[in-house]
UniProtKB/TrEMBL annotation, chain A:
It is an enzyme of class 1 (oxidoreductase). Its EC number is 1.2.7.11, 1.2.7.3. Residues 269-433 form the Pyruvate flavodoxin/ferredoxin oxidoreductase pyrimidine binding domain. GO terms for biological process: response to oxidative stress. This is 2-oxoglutarate ferredoxin oxidoreductase subunit alpha. Residues 31-219 form the Pyruvate/ketoisovalerate oxidoreductase catalytic domain. SUPFAM superfamilies: Pyruvate-ferredoxin oxidoreductase, PFOR, domain III, Thiamin diphosphate-binding fold (THDP-binding), TK C-terminal domain-like. One of its GO terms (molecular function) is 2-oxoglutarate synthase activity. It holds the Pfam family POR_N. It comes from the Bacteria. The lineage of its organism: Bacteria, Pseudomonadati, Pseudomonadota, Alphaproteobacteria, Sphingomonadales. Residues 527-589 form the Pyruvate:ferredoxin oxidoreductase core domain.
UniProtKB/TrEMBL annotation, chain B:
Residues 56-202 form the Thiamine pyrophosphate enzyme TPP-binding domain. It comes from the Bacteria. InterPro entries: 2-oxoacid:Fd_oxidoreductase, THDP-binding, TPP_enzyme_TPP-bd. GO terms for molecular function: 2-oxoglutarate synthase activity; thiamine pyrophosphate binding. It is an enzyme of class 1 (oxidoreductase). Its EC number is 1.2.7.11, 1.2.7.3. The keyword Transferase does not apply. One of its GO terms (biological process) is cellular respiration. This is 2-oxoglutarate ferredoxin oxidoreductase subunit beta. Pfam families: TPP_enzyme_C (PF02775). Keywords: Oxidoreductase.
Length: 647, 344
């Protein structure tokens, strides 16, 4: 969703033809370049002024065996002339580059939707690999959809023949042929893509030319091949309403990286980023490693522990220390996070959550590390936790994390997830001068003669002073052993540990967080749907649809998971029912019950896929006792059944 | 820290904190602490620019007793914390204090990477061949057969050799000292003078759980035959000059030779060269017993340091570029929305 795009008012909506939204899914072998195809289609969509949301869905294996069901890589985009909040429940168009891609994706397609299949790949060998007994393109089993079978492989080979590429290299241009056809279908300009190909293959002009030829051929095919006779016509989707200004697309990983750089500048600090490669968090390390002119030092450590420990060391020396990982890596960092709590140093820890436990589902999304973030450490070890709701929102949330860490001398956990990391959306470029700086002042004042410096002295917010080594007159030692209030000397005494534990708790619980806002609806009423993180899109749409039918449903989306906003308890208690959709087995629900004794109920999903709007709508209907006339039938067919993938 | 600070002359006392030292009476750590505090005034460094970073274990309490900046971190991770400290502020003089369990067991990985990266720091490994703070279990440097609470029938695994490990990891400075030996300050001074990771193994007696384990070469009567103090440009002599180390050319190993009437040249005793990596490898592999224990600066051949390489790359990559945040957020393929496309 474009965060700056405003929601259509009923007047606006009625003044125009019904806003149109189209969902396209590209699916192919993990080596077919589907993510790249999707990414470029996304850019062309953004340039056409449509609002959009994407969902890249790829296997954990880099190049899974060709043609297999588990090697299928897909990219879904939802774009339209109105505000788009999700990557779409069901595709209108499915591009299937081989039988395996068809098999694992076709059930998600809307009835009557369009299948574009590369029949050149539907030979016996590939059919066998996809466990098809008969060729689905021939046996009538796809009758409820519109089928456009083209020998894309052959058409591509023909198109790139003049460039003298080997068969394998020539076939690599298939995705560009397909993209050319897709651009024709939605009446898009090819030029930005041609420019991009020229830049990408600057060192191999023949590859650039071949890819451009394939792209043009796909486009020309659409123009000339009387597809209209088959009921396939060009569609123009009008631009979505958006506030005037400069826009770009961002993924969550890019947005978080930019937000961290902005946060460091607002805090007047150099940034040190300690990272260790892990899916899906690595993109942040990649992005930041290019920002050296912004006073960013990146360090690829030997392991997750060294990544966080070095970030903490840098914080001790006066930098903004940042580390990021995914669940398994966060688990390894836990002891060092405890040290950051004990030594009260600022640190930003980003967890791009993925399916767990253990290695779990490395490339799939989940929100199951909320307990880990809020509770997952030895000792009474409070850490503020905040969560981003969209790729664009990651920017502001990253700044907020830096603010809390530096203003309160505490580690902060920032939660995103695999979906947010990879998904792209339009973003209105922010005006940086509108952000209020929060510069850090290091403590340099030497106490008067006869008095000792108090490294654990505190201000009104209970924050201790931040002293950089190198500062004369303030020599002191810190560490993980319990220390005396004020002096920071080792102190195991019972009363002191009680007091220090209370202080650490009070400091974090006293962090100023904005009051909880209501996204849609009002305080009080029948049902509130409470979400956090990347479920924002489907919840917002589901609530919007329910409200448009006249139902009393509100939407509350929590950014500050810990400490929770002070008004949240009363707000939740003002509704008859509280429904918490989460991509876990009910972690926020448990937290809310524990904190407020509210009868929060769960809607949970841990399939590695984001919620569909219809699923949340169905749960809303159930909770308010309504019988929705559902526009989108709720079923689980979007997901390939486990049997289909692992027969 | 670009302003020039004049270093006040200091005495060992200036480097002591007001904290009560909490090691067992008679612990070798006291001697090492004294040696470090005696060495500091001679290094021309300011206490405020000095940071002691430690892990966990008896040795790692060290920073509390040094009147400098200090960070007592978590088990095994001092090298990683120190890396962050030094990258954030390369001007700081960083000392890492660790033990055999801290550096070679739980923190072995970090030790290896610190050394191969060559972070400029002094790395003092107090080797007492035992876990002291957890009450006496055998450690990765304990000799085979060590009886301990966790190995009542004797340990069966082969011990790690700290200096061989360090060289294998790519260390450019490797030295050995003994807690109570008068030469320790000079070893520490050499370590400090080395730009890069300076690895120093200090044999440290644990009076409670592993008392006298180093007596075969540290005890007074054994010192002459048991200790080979090497020095750059000097022949490798011990036993008061009566014995030396020479190369067994046939077997390409070292051998002990007798030196008659001071004629070490005649006995082909090797002249120590601290930049010779091959000799260093042989010295750290010399089995004690048939050979004396090699002590002093075994290897010292500086190479570019990690933090200077990082800083140089950061500088080069930033050259001619501004830190304009507005420019950064506006990067990539952008488009303008001039007005709301839907006219009401």
């Amino acid at each position: 969703m474009a965060t700056a795009a405003h929601t259509l008012t009923p007047q606006e909506a009625s003044a125009h033809p019904a806003p149109e939204a189209i969902v396209v899914r590209f699916a192919g072998d993990s080596g077919d370049g589907m993510q790249l195809t999707g990414g470029q289609f996304t850019l062309s969509t953004a340039l056409a002024g449509n609002d959009l949301a994407t969902f890249p869905d790829f296997p954990a294996e880099i190049r899974a065996p060709q043609g297999t069901l588990f090697g299928v890589s897909a990219f879904q985009i939802n774009f339209g002339s109105a505000q788009i909040d999700t990557a779409g429940d069901q595709p209108d168009v499915l591009v299937a580059m081989n039988p395996a891609a068809l098999k694992t994706n076709v059930d998600a397609l809307k009835p009557g939707g369009l299948i574009i299949a590369d029949e050149g790949e539907f030979g016996q060998r590939n059919l066998d690999k996809a466990k098809y007994a008969a060729n689905p393109l021939e046996d009538g089993s796809l009758a409820k959809w519109q089928l456009l079978k083209l020998n894309i492989s052959q058409l591509t080979l023909d198109a790139v023949k003049p460039f003298g590429l080997g068969n394998k290299e020539a076939l690599r241009c298939k995705n560009m042929w397909t993209l050319g056809l897709a651009l024709w279908m939605f009446d898009r300009d090819r030029q930005p893509l041609i420019d991009w190909l020229k830049a990408k293959f600057a060192k191999a002009p023949e590859l650039a030319e071949a890819n451009i030829a394939a792209l043009n051929a796909g486009h020309a095919y659409g123009e000339t091949a009387e597809l209209g006779a088959m009921g396939i016509s060009q569609r123009q989707v009008a631009a979505a309403p958006a506030e005037p200004g400069l826009y770009r697309t961002v993924t969550g990983a890019e947005s978080i990286s930019l937000g961290l750089v902005a946060g460091a500048q607002l805090a007047s600090l150099p940034m040190f980023f300690g990272g260790y490669p892990i899916t899906p968090a690595s993109a942040i390390l990649h992005t930041l490693s290019r920002y050296k002119e912004y006073d960013v030092t990146t360090f690829q450590a030997e392991d997750e522990i060294a990544a966080v420990a070095s970030a903490l060391g840098s914080a001790y020396a006066g930098s903004l220390g940042v580390t990021c990982s995914s669940g398994p890596g966060i688990a390894l960092k836990t002891e060092a996070i405890g040290l950051a709590i004990m030594t009260e140093l600022p640190l930003v820890i980003i967890n791009a959550q993925r399916g767990g436990p253990s290695t779990g589902l490395p490339t799939k999304t989940e929100q199951s590390d909320l307990y880990q973030a809020v509770y997952g450490r030895n000792g009474d070890a409070p850490v503020p936790v905040i969560a981003a709701r969209s790729a664009a929102d990651c920017f502001d949330v990253a700044i907020e994390a830096v603010r809390i860490a530096t203003q309160y001398m505490t580690p902060v956990m920032l939660l995103t997830d695999g979906y947010l990391q990879n998904a792209a959306e339009p973003w209105k470029v922010p005006d940086m001068s509108a952000y209020a700086p929060f510069p850090v002042t290091f403590h340099t004042e030497v106490p008067p003669e006869g008095e000792k410096f108090q490294p654990y002295g505190r201000d009104a917010k209970l924050k201790r002073p931040w002293v950089k080594p190198g500062t004369p007159g303030l020599l002191h030692r810190i560490g993980g052993i319990e220390k005396a209030q004020g002096s920071g000397n080792i102190d195991y005494s019972p009363a002191n540990h009680q007091a220090m534990t209370n202080t650490r708790r009070d400091k974090v619980m006293g962090i100023e967080v904005p009051d909880q806002a209501i996204e849609q609806g009002q305080a009080g009423g029948k049902l509130v749907v409470v979400g956090w993180g990347s479920t924002y899109g489907p919840i917002a749409q589901a609530v919007r649809r329910a409200r448009s039918r006249g139902h009393d449903v509100s939407h509350v989306h929590i950014r500050h998971i810990w400490p929770l906003p002070k008004n949240l308890g009363d707000l939740l208690k003002s509704y008859e029912h509280v429904l918490v959709p989460e991509m876990n087995t009910g972690q926020l629900k448990t937290l809310l019950r524990d904190q407020y004794l509210v009868d929060a109920r769960s809607l949970t999903k841990v399939s590695g896929q984001p919620f569909r709007i219809a699923e949340i709508e169905a749960a809303i209907a159930q909770h308010i006792g309504a019988d929705f006339d559902q526009e989108v039938p709720s079923d689980d067919s979007q997901l390939p059944s486990p049997e289909a993938v692992n027969p | 820290m670009n302003e020039i600070t004049t270093i006040r002359p200091s005495t060992p006392k200036d480097w002591e904190t007001d904290q009560e030292v909490r090691w067992c009476p008679g612990c070798g750590d006291y001697a090492i602490l004294k040696a470090v505090q005696r060495t500091m005034p001679e290094l021309g460094v300011a206490p405020e620019n000095t940071v002691f970073v430690s892990g966990i274990g008896c040795s790692s309490r060290f920073p509390y007793y040094m009147e400098t900046y200090g960070f007592h971190t978590i088990h095994g991770r001092a090298p990683a914390v120190a890396t962050g400290v030094k990258l954030a502020n390369p001007e700081l003089d960083v000392w890492i204090i660790t033990g055999d369990g801290d550096a070679l067991s739980i923190g072995g990985n970090h030790t290896m990477h610190l050394l191969r990266r060559n972070l400029d720091c002094q790395f003092l490994l107090f080797n007492n061949e035992i876990y002291g703070l957890t009450k006496g279990q055998y450690s990765p440097t304990s000799r085979e057969g060590t009886r301990s609470p966790s190995t009542p029938f004797g340990s069966v695994d082969h011990p790690a050799k700290p200096c061989a490990f360090a060289l294998g990891a790519g260390a450019r400075f490797v030295a050995r000292g003994i807690d109570v030996h008068k030469n320790l300050p000079s070893v520490l001074k050499a370590a400090h003078a080395h730009r890069g990771a300076a690895f120093v193994e200090i044999f440290q007696n644990c009076i409670v759980y592993n008392d006298e384990v180093f007596e075969p070469f540290t005890a007074k009567p054994n010192a002459a035959l048991g200790q080979l103090w090497v020095e750059h440009g000097q022949p490798m002599l011990f036993a008061g000059g009566a014995k030396g180390i020479a190369l067994d050319r046939e077997r390409l190993t070292l051998k002990v030779v007798d030196v008659a009437d001071g004629d070490w040249q005649g006995a082909e005793v090797i002249v120590h060269n601290v930049t010779n990596r091959a000799i260093a490898h042989m010295l750290v592999e010399m089995p004690f017993g048939p050979f004396p224990m090699a002590l002093g600066v075994l290897y010292d051949d500086p190479a570019p340091t990690f933090e200077s390489a990082v800083a140089a790359q950061n500088r080069a990559a930033s050259e001619g570029k501004s830190a304009d945040l507005q420019k950064l957020v506006s990067k990539g393929q952008t488009w303008m929305v001039d007005k709301e496309p839907h006219k009401l």
